[in-house]
Amino acid sequence: MSNKKNYGMVIDTRVCVGCSACVYACKQENHVPEGYCRDWVVQETGGEYPKLTMENRSERCQHCDNAPCVTYCPTRASHYAEDGTVQVNRSLCTGCKACMAACPYDARFVHPEGFVDKCSLCQHRIEQGMETACVSICPTGSLNLVDFNNMDQKAKQLLSGKVVYRQKEHAGTEPSLHWISASNKPGA
Amino acid sequence: MLATAVNEIVSTKLNPNVVPHLHIWEWHIPLYLFLGGIAGGLLVITSIMIVLKRKFGIGPRDEGNGCPCLAVRIGSILSPTLLGIGMLFLFLDLAHPLYVWAFYTTVQPTSPMSAGSWILIAFFPLAILQAMLVNKRQLRDFNIEIVNKVIDWTENHMTMVALVNAHIGVGIGIYTGILLSFFSARPLWSSSILGMLFLVSGISAAAALMLLLAPKDEKPVYSMIDANAIWIEIMTVGLFVLGGLTGSANSHGAMMHLITGDVNLAGMSYMFWFWGIFVAAGLVVPLLLEFLEAAGVHIRFPNVAPVMVLLGGLVLRFLIVFAGQTYHTFV
Prior knowledge:
The complex is a heterodimer.
Chain A: E1 7-12, H1 21-30, E2 39-48, E3 51-60, H2 68-72, E4 78-80, E5 86-88, H3 98-102, E6 109-111, E7 115-117, H4 123-126, H5 133-137, E8 143-147, H6 153-159, E9 164-165, E10 177-180
Parallel strand pairs in A: 1-10
Antiparallel strand pairs in A: 1-8, 2-3, 4-5, 6-7, 9-10
Chain B: E1 6-11, H1 28-52, H2 70-93, H3 112-134, H4 136-142, H5 145-154, H6 158-181, H7 193-213, H8 219-245, H9 249-259, E2 264-265, E3 268-269, H10 270-294, H11 304-326
Antiparallel strand pairs in B: 2-3
Helix pairs in contact in B: 1-2, 1-6, 1-7, 1-11, 2-3, 2-7, 3-6, 6-7, 7-8, 7-11, 8-9, 8-10, 10-11
């Protein structure tokens, strides 16, 4: 057990139905302005007809351990929080957009009020011992909030023996979001 | 019939200026990079002119009281002026301009923007001092006490000031390219030779500007500097293109997006802007014109070549900034 938290997510794409409940729960919880989103749903279809595979998944800021947005932020507005997440301090953000150019996941946007915004992994809820808005609403249990420094039995079981990937790992960002691939055989 | 394997992604992401492609930097940034490049180039050229004096036959002519030739005097004033205007555009690009102070309450060594914001500040004191020293005869006529004192203290050290400024000028010129090239998420920008390209382009644009402003007897010097800078710039562009084409799928695709791209920029495709306007009209033709001029062939409109060089430099900044955003993110 480590006292230092390192929050991330395990997203089980095998059970994601692409309902977008996570997107709207987030918008409601975090007052995301209309026409913007901090998380979004992707449907990826691959293969050769008629043998096609499809994966639904919920995506958001990857809360990288080596985050280019933090590296390139000139004012410390983008920073690592104690709990291992990446946060934006609005009162330091000039809106120079260097972080947006730096992010290989295009997870950020300019808020109409003039600062750069993105998923905060509901830091304000985690602090109160709650799960993120998206995790709490997910009807199929696809979304899981995990402290990777202190993985509980449930998280370990979820990952064990499965094909698990992270996105654009070769960008060197050490992302904290892990996806259980839809290509896993049933019962894996 | 669905011929071969497919891989399609449908996303619900909405964010404006992020989808369908990044669109965070518009005209402000290329204009700032252009003006910053010229400012750096002007500082490099005027400083070298001051340091070299009449050595190698290209130094400024002394008009008495240590004041060098007219183009150096004007160029020294224009350098901090143009950088100031460029910084205004940079300021206007900020989504929250009132928080601009946040740049100057910290030094973030890993952030090129942080380094740049400090270099921009470091630029002004010595650049303005140099502009004062080369114009000291005119300044003394105003008889302002503080100005006179500053000139008295520093006038014997003009060579040293110019020597430092030559390096600061190179720093600014390279920085305008490095600013973009650090973003590994943007495959077109992710090339360290971009710093070199923007530096030589800035020096060549600055030489063109001095060529336009210089009196007739001083013009040949700047024409020669410009021709040399253009020649080096053509080599550097070639290396930039080759580096992209021979790189990873990301780099190759991004370079093809620029040099053969059909994305429309102000009515013309990237391909036409790159080869037709930047390479042909902005580099090759002015180089030929300046060679002819140097060879003694009379050219009816001697200002055509420098204007084309300036236009080419501006187009280069717009093309790189825009094409770097319209190409997809690093995969």
